[in-house]
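Appendix B. One record, verbatim.
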Amino acid sequence: MRVGLVNYGGGNLRSVENALHALGVFPELITDASELGDCTHLILPGQGEFGDVMRQLDKRGLVEPLREWIAAGKPYFGICVGFQILFEGSDEAPGVEGLGIVKGRCVRFQEEEGKKIPQMGWNGTVPQNCASAFWKGLGAEPYFYFVHSYFPKPEDDGWKTTVTDYAGEKFVAAVEKGDVLACQFHPEKSQDAGLALISNFLGL
């Protein structure tokens, strides 16, 4: 197994690296397409603005290779913005195209009295595909740590989803298909549940 950690000049690389090290996995940083080489798994950690992330990936020649990798169903784990860029676009960056792997776009939480935006904190998540190997051993409603103002609204029934609720607003917290998994929350900051999810993704 060779795990590639996509470095687009931002993201939450150190925390994800530390989580992988805790599992006995030592990833290689991927900064351009030539370094994908013989990677067996890709992780794209998220932290930053949708448009800037897409521009940085394009600058490094990674947009098309990522599209091809994910469309081929190779193991990919997208975290936060790494989840959002799978979609066609985002209200955070009008006019900027995402990877377009999943139909739909990202929207902002609705402004409501008493609701804090961004969402910051722990939330229960409910996988709609409990038989999935990704969720093995995590129970019916595992808790993960979220930090975000935007979230995707998928329009593609071909993807299994995990849902959550923030201040009465339900949204999709993760999608999966085959060996591709992406989530809005931060597993690398989610203690045992997060490590278990990463471990399941890697098939450890």
